[in-house]
Give the backbone structure.
Amino acid sequence: MKVELVALGVVSIASGVYGWGASGHQTVGYVAMQFLSPKALEFVQTSLGSTYSHSLGPAATWADEVRSQAAYTWSSVLHYVDAEDDAPDSCSVDESRDCADGRCILTAIANYTSRVVDTSLSDTERQEALKFLDHFVGDIGQPLHVEARAVGGNTISVQCNGATTNLHALWDSGMINRLLPGTYNSSATNWANTLVNRIKSGSYSSLAESWISCSSTTEPARRSVEGDILALLHPRADGTLVCPLVWARDSNSLDCSTVFDYTIGEDLCTSSYYTRNIPLIETQIAKQGFRLAAWLNVLFDGATNLP
Ligand SMILES: *[C@@H]1O[C@H](CO)[C@@H](O)[C@H](O)[C@H]1NC(C)=O
Ligand SMILES: *[C@@H]1O[C@H](CO)[C@@H](O)[C@H](O)[C@H]1NC(C)=O
Ligand SMILES: [Zn+2]
């Protein structure tokens, strides 16, 4: 998405958002809140304070709000990684190929993971690190934030509920905005509560452990979340992370299975494209919320402490 700013300059009035729309990001934060262990929860509540209602839900959209401000334009490229794969025929994320200059969502997650626990930084800097993590762990679950094709889908015009949008915005917010009013009374907290119940005792309960194993069928387990964070923060460690790369590959794989699979001219919010993909979007949001909690729990309490 190297020209994303140019493209979004045109579409942002219509779509209004970058990355999962506000509801998607807030829901990731609200899901994470329900799985935080004691010290992680205490840090989050104290750091965010009343400005964000002491919650990762409201704080999750800050990174999108500042991104267009002059003081934060440098952060714009950190919301994605331009996977130069051959989607939809062949999907892959390769950190040395796709993040060669060291400025993408993969390095940003590593950077803000180190910074959020760096006690030599000010409270304000650590709060910013937390807000960036809250947001980027969400973004990395959006398949078109881990794809270079068509500028992450920004240059592909599509229809949603009779309106013209683009494929990237459709995944950020178009399909979610159709889901929320009818199913969750337009409430991110209602949505989050439903996803949390699915993780605790419903259709996601058998999957949740695999979401935080940092392995997949294409990525044999090399590290746990605990091992990954130790590897980043230990003074003699190599400083590279495996888990965010696994998460990126996980969402990038959807670019080969479903994201680009539609008929030109069909309305993607009223056709089978919607019914096929909205469950995947719900799963991505739940996954990223659960992964965010695991990440913060290891950072502040030393273990994932999750079901
Ligand atoms: C790391 O964080 C600092 C402070 O926000 C920022 O200036 C720098 O660009 C970040 N680098 C990456 C790769 O995220
Ligand atoms: C839906 O949301 C509205 C506005 O927040 C509220 O007044 C109403 O009671 C809610 N409906 C249900 C069924 O929860
Ligand atoms: Zn974003």
Summary: The chain has one domain: 15-300. Residues 185 surround 2-acetamido-2-deoxy-beta-D-glucopyranose (ligand 2) (CB under 6 Å). The first strand starts at residue 157 and ends at 160.
